[in-house]
Write a structure and sequence with these properties.
By secondary structure, this protein is an all-alpha fold. It contains 16 helices and no strands. The protein has one domain. The longest helix is centred in the middle third of the chain and has 34 residues.
Length: 342
């Protein structure tokens, strides 16, 4: 009696599975998402930005590990949350800033690069009217472009974060504690929202302007304004409104609160305050002006992760709100625009 070859059964099963995948009908939304992810990953601008972000972050990580290995014999207070210092340690000798500084500076460029031609490029190539002539909902296109870019951003920064963890574990030989791991995950989620804000802003410009060069220039201009010129304007406002020497404590306190409120209009300031608080548990207040009443009864020591999240919850909420506002404006503008075929 001839027995059937077991490999033939395996080949038959695999052939059936391949046939099922070929015949499977995907939802139009996820079809557009897959197409957009493929276009982004194969584009040269994404590859160039990925190389720049990866090299700079790895450079800062290497210098941080070298300096941390020299100070690994610190006292117990410094050894607590030692692993988190990989993200916040800068090297004074080489001049390389910390990992979070690179993410704060280069992350917006990634968001702008993925969204500045999301809609107007389709319009200029004449493919927008062809897509809209298909039996799909109109908002699928805009939503799919946002979701595809957000998936790429999440995967990229998740890979960078876990690469930092693995590299630090290999170089330092000190594993992260569960609380350190949770803080790094919170940092990852916050980074995705921060870059997502710039992504939505660039998508808004791509809906508003017809030319991709104009939308890219508008996004980069706003990024440069908040990165370079906003602090200069803030210093001018602070010098003009500074109370006199004979002012009361309430005047100085009101002045400081007003300046901090203006500074937090910048997304990079919100991201910086939130990341520093999450990755440095010793930070107990985000205000530079503390009264004696606020210091009385304060217990010295690092904050637990729940208290750190409560401390930066307004900053996180502001970033999420700014992201949603930009997306809502671009959504309404796109739904009201007239699309004509060439």
């Amino acid at each position: 009696m001839n027995k059937r070859n077991p490999l033939a059964k395996v080949d038959g099963f695999l052939a059936k599975q391949r046939e099922k995948r070929r015949n499977k009908v995907y939802h139009p939304f996820w079809t557009i998402v897959q197409k957009e992810i493929g276009d982004h990953v194969r584009s040269w601008r994404f590859i160039i930005l990925l190389a720049i972000i990866s090299l700079t972050c790895l450079g800062s990580l290497y210098t941080a590990t070298m300096s941390l290995r020299e100070t690994a014999v610190a006292d117990n207070a410094d050894k607590s949350f030692f692993f988190l210092r990989l993200f916040t340690t800068a090297d004074a000798d080489t001049g390389l800033p910390a990992f979070i500084t690179f993410v704060s500076f280069l992350g917006p460029l990634l968001g702008i690069a993925l969204g500045f031609d999301a809609v107007n490029s389709e319009r200029n190539k004449g493919t927008l009217s062809r897509i809209m002539s298909q039996p799909i909902h109109r908002d699928y296109l805009l939503n799919a472009k946002f979701v595809a870019a957000l998936i790429i951003i999440t995967i990229l920064f998740a890979a960078l974060t876990f690469l930092v963890m693995g590299f630090g574990l290999f170089m330092l030989g000190i594993p992260p504690t569960p609380e350190e791991f949770l803080r790094m995950l919170a940092f990852l989620v916050l980074t995705v929202f921060y870059v997502g804000f710039w992504l939505n802003l660039s998508i808004l410009f791509s809906v508003r302007f017809r030319q991709p060069a104009t939308s890219a220039l508008a996004g980069i201009s706003i990024w440069l304004f908040f990165s370079v010129f906003f602090s200069l304007i803030l210093n001018l406002i602070g010098n003009a409104l500074m109370p006199s020497a004979d002012a009361t404590t309430e005047d100085f306190l009101g002045y400081q609160q007003f300046m901090e409120m203006i500074a937090r209009l910048s997304p990079s300031q919100l991201f910086s305050e939130a990341t520093v608080t999450l990755l440095m548990p010793s930070v107990r207040s985000l205000s530079s002006f503390l009264t004696i009443d606020q210091l009385i009864g304060a217990i010295p020591g690092p904050l637990p992760i729940g208290q750190s999240l409560l401390l930066v919850w307004p900053q996180i909420t502001a970033l999420i709100a700014a992201t949603m506002i930009c997306f809502a404006i671009s959504y309404v503008m796109f739904m009201r625009q007239e699309i004509r075929s060439r």
